[in-house]
Amino acid sequence: MFEPGTHRRIALLICDVPVDTIREEHGDYTRIFGTLLEESLKPINETHPADSQTTFTLEPFDVRAQVYPNDDEYDAILITGSASTAHEYEQPGREWMKKLIEYVRAVATEKPRIKIFGICFGHQIVALAMGGTCVRNTRFEVSATKLQLTELGKRVYGVESGVLNIHLMNRDHVPTEPPSFHVLASSSQSPNHGMVLFSQSESSKDISHSNFRLTDIHILTSQGHPEFTESIMHLLLTWRRELLGPELVHDGESRAGNQNDGIAVIGKAIWGVMGVD
């Protein structure tokens, strides 16, 4: 599907804007996700000669205003997080979420060439689009957290220890994955912190016990935020102090500087799914 050293065009489906303090220091979501992709691509490109390195463009589309890409022009779509509640898509004023769910379903079923990545809210939108569930959890999950990887998750992310360290900021979760999806990671509060759907050519195989390439993955999602940094998490915890409560904010602040595998593990896997390794 992809040739090494070629250009990738990625459509970024914008589902919110960062809070003011984050936007002032780290930029908008195009810049934040652009940094994730740039930093995770650098060590991959360093292993290739200059004339066979990969480049990319990341083009934003504000789906809240129902602005969408001509998806045939892109190699992948990436759905951002949002403060909105995905499972409220049927409520008045949430028409943009319903359209997003319909769009993701259409691309997933009709455009197998296009890779789909969903982050947090995007993970939940993918679940709703493809037949899974999304509900309110008992409490927020915040800050740098150790997730337990499934056997498949270990192979997708190349982490033999079985532990994935990633920043979280969610109260909703996906307790039931869609048909044919495979869970990659879980926490003590949420059974599904990320999932994959393999391409049709791989779907008939017993993926959990067979060999596969990352390019065999059609959809990859993460409930956690690989684009978040320690600084972003500190700013977000401060902004949401009243909503989260002092105890949870203090706990989150104490863990914000812990190991973060967003770039080295999840970012690398995103590129691998697009055929860049």
Outline the structure in words.
- The protein is built from ten helices and ten strands.
- A seven-stranded mixed β-sheet has the order 2-1-3-4-10-9-7, with helices on both faces. A three-stranded antiparallel β-sheet has the order 6-5-8.
- The radius of gyration is 18 Å and the shape is globular.
- Strand 3 (76-79), helix 3 (95-110) and strand 4 (115-119) form a beta-alpha-beta unit.
- Helix 2 crosses helix 10 (262-273).
- The chain is of the alpha/beta class and 277 residues long.
- The longest helix is centred in the N-terminal third of the chain and has 17 residues, at 29-45.
Summed up:
The protein has 277 residues and is α/β, with parallel strands linked by helices.
Oligomeric category: single chain
Into which percent range does the helicity of residues fall?
25-40%
User: Roughly what is the average pLDDT, rounded to an integer?
Assistant: 94
Order of helices and strands: EHHEEHEHEHEEEEHEHHHH
Shape by Cα distribution: globular
Uncertain residue segments: none
Please identify the structural class as seen in this structure.
alpha/beta
Taking the alpha carbons of the first and last residues, their distance comes to 14 Å
Tell me about the largest β-sheet: 7 strands, mixed
Q: Order of strands across the widest beta sheet?
A: 2-1-3-4-10-9-7
Beta fraction of the residues? 15-25%
How many DSSP E strands? 10
Could you tell me the radius of gyration in angstroms? 18 Å
Number of helices: 10
